[in-house]
């Protein structure tokens, strides 16, 4: 198969979800249950469902040689699946609902469309149980809750004889307040609520994950760091400008770095990962604990000669993905507990799909491990590969590896290093940080240190030449200045390559 331009490999987090879906679908398919206690117009409900789903872009997957590829398409209409259980007692209804959902779980929704399955059970004359079933690849829990609330809002308006061309939503994170209004009453102990409680507890207990420069020094004797001062920039103004697009400071910095790296390398389709401590900076309603955010740049952003359009596209992408939480551009939230596997095991695990599934199932059963048993070490061997940065920047045979870019933001008030000068942030890394996620593949770490109205950047990476660090810093500085002041200074390709 010759990969078409509009078909892209999955990002690492997406691939993680895809693999886990194949191993244990009942755990990695999101299911949402909404109990409705009123008479319903089924045809109108189906129209509302399709009107909302067709408004959101989702991923269609295509499999080739055991590896999935993706493309963004408009949502196709779906047909509501309906089951009438009014003839059964309540206990029998619960059994039949469970049996029916198990049959849906067994179907390979990853390989067949539509990826979103919608249906409802009629339990009584004016009592229905609406459900949505979707893989993590299509959306995260927050976005699906918002989509569900949009469906119910639209149905309520339509049933009242009102047309609603544009669904007006308040702050997305207030969806629970909306869903509890008159139309919806949550089940007290449904699978969905159990899932929410589980993830909330998991995030709350987790410790922040930071890149460990000390570990890198042990693994790679020759490692250099580059630090540059951006304190002359008004960082508060930058964050205020980012907030115009509904961004947090973290995701905004990730966006700036991704544009800089994209511009520097002339390549698209690389993965940008942000690791950050959210517990003090973000409201608890929005996110709990540390999390990974990944942005997957699309081919239409790859024209180096039209940087203004590229930056505008990224802003628009963030605007859609973050403000409305629809995950239209593969913005996903996920927390992974990393495991450090022996090198031999890492090489032997993914010999083939069958062996991989069998071995992983055995590990899950014998070790009684949860979904976190799969680490990025395993994913690298099945990952079809994103386009690399210019191969000359890296060491021997680096063109065969994916290149990962990590962005950290560390506020001194959060880290407790207020007495240390900003010019030496490496001391914090060497003494406080711990993360064994990386396995020797080329990666770049960009760390922003903030103190009040000052900003310092540190660039690290294994197998990374100092010239590239200097070029990245210069490019990033230019991008930030352009973003802040609206300037569009265009460095040439030779200037970018030569730093």
3D structure, described in words:
By secondary structure, the protein is of the alpha+beta class. The longest helix has 20 residues. The N terminus and C terminus are likely disordered. Strand 3 and strand 4 form a beta hairpin. It starts with 7 loop residues before the first strand and ends with a helix. Helix 10 runs antiparallel to helix 11 and helix 10 crosses helix 17. The strands form 3 sheets. It has a 7-stranded mixed beta sheet, sandwiched between helices. Strands 2-7-6-5 form a 4-stranded mixed beta sheet, with helices on both faces. The protein contains 18 helices and 14 strands. The chain has 2 domains: 172 residues, Chloramphenicol acetyltransferase-like domain (Chloramphenicol Acetyltransferase), CATH 3.30.559; 297 residues, Nonribosomal peptide synthetase, condensation domain (Chloramphenicol Acetyltransferase, 2-Layer Sandwich).
Structure described in brief:
GO terms for molecular function: catalytic activity; phosphopantetheine binding. This protein is of the alpha+beta class.
What is the terminal separation in angstroms? 37 Å
| CATH topology tier name of the largest domain | Chloramphenicol Acetyltransferase
Q: Work out the number of β strands.
A: 14
Going across the major beta sheet, what is the strand order?
A: 8-14-13-12-9-10-11
> How large a portion of the residues is in β-strands, by DSSP E?
15-25%
- Report the helical percentage: 25-40%
Looking at the overall shape, the CATH architecture of the largest domain is 2-Layer Sandwich
Which spans of ≥5 residues are poorly predicted at pLDDT below 50? 1-5, 23-27, 165-229, 242-251, 265-308, 317-403, 414-442, 487-499
CATH H-level superfamily title of the largest domain: Nonribosomal peptide synthetase, condensation domain
Arithmetic mean of pLDDT: 50
Shape: globular
Q: How large is the count of helical segments?
A: 18
